[in-house]
Amino acid sequence: MRDTLVLNASFEPLSTVTLNRAVVLILTDKAVVEQSHPELRMRGAAVDIPAPRVIRLCRYVRVPFRRQAPWSRRGVLIRDQHRCAYCGRRASTVDHVVPRAQGGQDTWLNTVASCAEDNHRKAARTPEQAGMPLLKQPFVPSPAEAMLLAMGAGDRSALPEWLDRTAVAGSRSRRTSGGVSVGPLP
User: Fold this and answer.
1) How far apart (Å, rounded) are the C-alpha atoms in residues 159 and 149?
2) What DSSP character marks residue 109?
3) Would you say residue 67 has pLDDT above 90?
4) Which of 74, 98, 142, 176 is deepest in the core (most CB within 10 A)?
5) Which of 95, 94, 100 is nearest to 74 (CA)?
6) 26 vs 3, 10, 51, 159, 171, CA distance in Å?
């Protein structure tokens, strides 16, 4: 399980790594702990450290710019926090706002999390045709937002306040996709 967030030296989210990989980065002085799990500890013959939840690299790593996070079914469910866009209950499927039968694509702005009942009830119709308005509009998460959401940080209290502001501030200026403005964070 990849449950440790890796920040660049500039505090920009880079990726997630396994807990073991994070400990190796810390022990080789390539990273420092920014936040640890409150109750977990990593113990060895000569080591006893808190289990890292967020680490920061000691040296800046230059990464190519990515405009948006790659689309995936899992990503849509995570973005929508596993809540149905039609009724608000627990979602287990992904629904196309404009159905594939009508030319809809697998994109962030055309897919929402949905419960199986509402997905079946809507069928191959648009929300307007089915009389099922969306409770919240789909949006394109930035790569940093997608990473934070994947770590369970849809609940912003799970991470330090400074990290939330840093990750979002870095992505706010790029929050458009193909000329379409996208909505606020959930």
Assistant:
1) 11
2) G
3) no
4) 142
5) 94
6) 15, 17, 11, 19, 27
